[in-house]
Amino acid sequence: MTAQTDTPGSVTAVYQVTGMSCGHCEGAVSGELSELPGVTSVKAVASTGEVTVVSAAPLDDEDVRAAVDEAGFELAGKA
Fold first, then answer.
1. How far apart, in whole angstroms, are the C-alpha atoms of residue 36 and residue 28?
2. Predicted local confidence at residue 1, as pLDDT
3. I need a labelling partner for 4 at 20 to 30 A (CA). Which of 13, 57, 70, 79 fits?
């Protein structure tokens, strides 16, 4: 996906995460991603596997992968 800006100075990226099945899963993924530097918003949706992340600057894919792994799930890529 191409990064898009919603507000000045912010970047939105949508990732595909496998293994999420409930609200607890969404919370675990959101919690880990929220700890990345520059992240201002995270919305995870278990039913679609999509995680939308808004940050001050583009995130490093390996940092995102590590955070998703830490939550116990797998980053399948950008949606």
1. 14
2. 40
3. 70
Strand partners, 78: 15
Look over the chain and give the mean of its residue pLDDT values, rounded to a whole number. Answer: 92
pLDDT of residue 2: 42
Q: Tokens at residue 74, please?
A: 């797998």
The 3-class SS string of the chain reads CCCECCCCCCEEEEEEEECCCCHHHHHHHHHHHHCCCCEEEEEEECCCCEEEEEECCCCCHHHHHHHHHHCCCEEEEEC
Report, as an integer, the average pLDDT of 25-29: 98
Q: How far apart are CA 39 and CA 23, in angstroms?
A: 20
Residue type, 61: D
Q: pTM above the 0.85 mark?
A: yes
